[in-house]
From TrEMBL:
Compartments, as annotated in UniProt: Cytoplasm
Coiled-coil ranges from the UniProt annotation: none
Similarity comment text for this entry: Belongs to the PAL/histidase family.
Protein name (Swiss-Prot/TrEMBL): Histidine ammonia-lyase
Gene coding for it: hutH
Organism field: Streptomyces marianii
Length: 519
């Protein structure tokens, strides 16, 4: 936990969470607390459930079975067992463990719905989730199990199983142990679920939403870093910033395009390399698309990001459960658990990620090609033929881009019927979120190779100096990755460049030099 995270508290139930709250709790371990007004709303919803529990009429989730078994009437004596059995049977995930940050985001978002009072759980149930998060207890959740409809059932059920004191979990140190042991060590009593509580703990889109929010946070950084890498490639290729002029961008007023072009203009200000190109008569009328169209491609991804942020903000203000306790005291079935609004934007983002990576790879390939790089040695090698330079770094980059194209295939257009055709159309939002996380990792690696290669090219353009901003990024990389020379073991240097990118240090170097925040 960072010092800043330790010094603040995220209040749950005082209004919708914002995305920064989710990232802070998920990644930094920021503590949470239930807002005073939350208990009142929770109790109001619980009163409705307890009233209906004694009713002779069937009520889904309270006195009936689930899914295709909803026609089965459950007697009062079996209703507590009904909830326990629901969680146990639905905790059916398989595959690798899901990342800790995803599970923490999922639990926080489920808690944010519980405190609205729309689910009918007890106050102690909501507090148990808060206590687990604050204790750093992370239930083991598996990669496969959610169809993205009726909620992220299996992932949420594994979390509910842990709060019952069953299944497995990792403590704050990451040690794997029985969930009961982790709860006991933290002084948390296992929950004995009441009517409807098992269903309320598993019927939400919290997993896919949590991964969307984390992805948005990561993509904001990567898109700004993409502008930095592109600016460095423009210089490396003796390109021009003329196509990025503001008056040209206003002819097509997409906000993302404008932001990207503005970044490129700032980053390239003061470049001796571009000035030299303008003085020389190279016969170049215009740059290749991978340079000239950077604002259009990067900008389209920014606009997609903006749309996804609006969807995420609406979801953060939502209470997702089925059935739900309404404001007038009804227990009403609904379809709000369907993940379509989230799965669509997850897929949309994966398409944009692949496109940004694709244009970055084209710039890198151009920098390495002696027929197109305006005087640089082949593959930026010290002694081409004896040395291969960055030849295979581009192969690696191309392999990742090819994978990103496969990951851009939408998951949201798929559906597979389940529960004896009761749940006959599903969103596959969890799958869309999982592949987006892999795609963002790939984009970071593609940008790292571009930055790694363009920095070497800028060194080889000496004595011409790059722009102060791009030069600062190049110099920052040089603190951990050496400059041109004979062939070396490239993999560690690519990984070091990747850390430079994902840590935000590359962006920080550029912003410190320009004195402004990149858009």
């Amino acid at each position: 936990m960072t010092t800043a995270a330790a010094a603040r508290t995220v209040w749950v139930g005082a209004g919708p969470l914002d995305a920064d709250d989710v990232v802070s709790v998920a990644r930094e371990g920021t503590r949470i607390a239930l807002a005073p007004e939350a208990a009142k709303e929770i109790r109001r919803g619980r009163e409705v459930v307890e009233l209906l529990a004694g009713d002779s009429s069937p009520h889904y989730g309270v006195s009936t079975g689930f899914g295709a078994l909803a026609g089965r009437r459950i007697p009062p004596s079996a209703r507590a067992r009904l909830q326990r059995n629901l969680v146990r049977s639905h905790a059916a995930g398989t595959g690798p463990e899901v990342e800790r940050e995803v599970i923490r985001a999922l639990m926080l978002l489920r808690l944010s719905t519980l405190v609205t009072g729309r689910t009918g759980v007890r106050v102690r149930t909501a507090r148990a989730y808060a206590d687990m998060l604050n204790a750093g207890i992370t239930p083991v959740v598996h990669e496969y199990g959610s169809l993205g409809c009726s909620g992220d059932l299996a992932p949420l059920a594994h979390c509910a199983l842990a709060v019952m004191g069953e299944g497995t979990a990792r403590d704050a140190n990451g040690t794997l142990m029985p969930a009961a042991q982790a709860l006991d060590a933290a002084g948390i009593a296992p929950l004995d679920l009441g009517e409807k509580e098992g269903l309320s703990l598993i019927n939400g889109t919290d997993g896919m939403l949590g991964m969307l929010i984390l992805a948005l946070n990561d993509l904001r950084l990567l898109l700004r870093t993409a502008d930095i890498a592109a600016a460095m490639s423009v210089e490396a290729l003796l390109g021009t910033d003329a196509a990025f002029a503001d008056d040209l961008q206003t002819l097509r007023p997409h906000p993302g395009q404008s932001s990207s072009a503005g970044n490129l203009r700032v980053l390239l200000t003061g470049s001796q390399v571009l000035a030299e190109h303008q003085r020389a008569d190279c016969g170049c009328v215009q740059d290749a698309y991978s340079l000239r169209c950077t604002p259009q491609v990067h900008g389209a991804a920014r606009d997609t990001l903006g749309h996804a942020e609006r969807v995420a903000s609406r979801e953060l203000a939502s209470a997702v459960d089925n059935p739900v306790v309404t404001a007038d005291g009804r227990l009403a079935s609904n379809g709000n658990f369907h993940g379509a609004p989230i799965s669509c934007v997850l897929d949309f983002l994966a398409i944009s990620v692949a496109d940004v990576a694709s244009i970055a790879e084209r710039r890198t390939d151009r920098v390495l090609d002696p027929t197109r790089n305006h005087g640089l040695p082949a593959f930026l090698a010290a002694d081409p033929g004896v040395d291969s330079g960055h030849m295979i770094a581009q192969y690696t980059q191309a392999a990742v881009v090819s994978e990103l194209k496969r990951l851009a295939t939408p998951a949201s257009v798929d559906s597979i019927p389940s529960s004896a055709m009761q749940e006959d159309h599903v969103s596959m939002g969890w799958s869309a979120a999982r592949k987006l996380r892999r795609a963002l990792d790939g984009l970071a690696r593609v940008l790292a190779v571009e930055l790694y290669t363009s920095a070497r090219a800028l060194d080889l353009r000496a004595p011409l100096n790059p722009a102060p901003a791009t030069g600062a990024v190049r110099d920052g990389l040089r603190r951990t990755v050496p400059g041109p020379g004979p062939d070396r073991f490239l993999a560690p240097e690519i990984e070091a460049t990747l850390r430079y990118v994902v840590s935000g240090r590359a962006m920080a170097e550029a912003e410190a030099e320009t004195g402004r925040t990149l858009a």
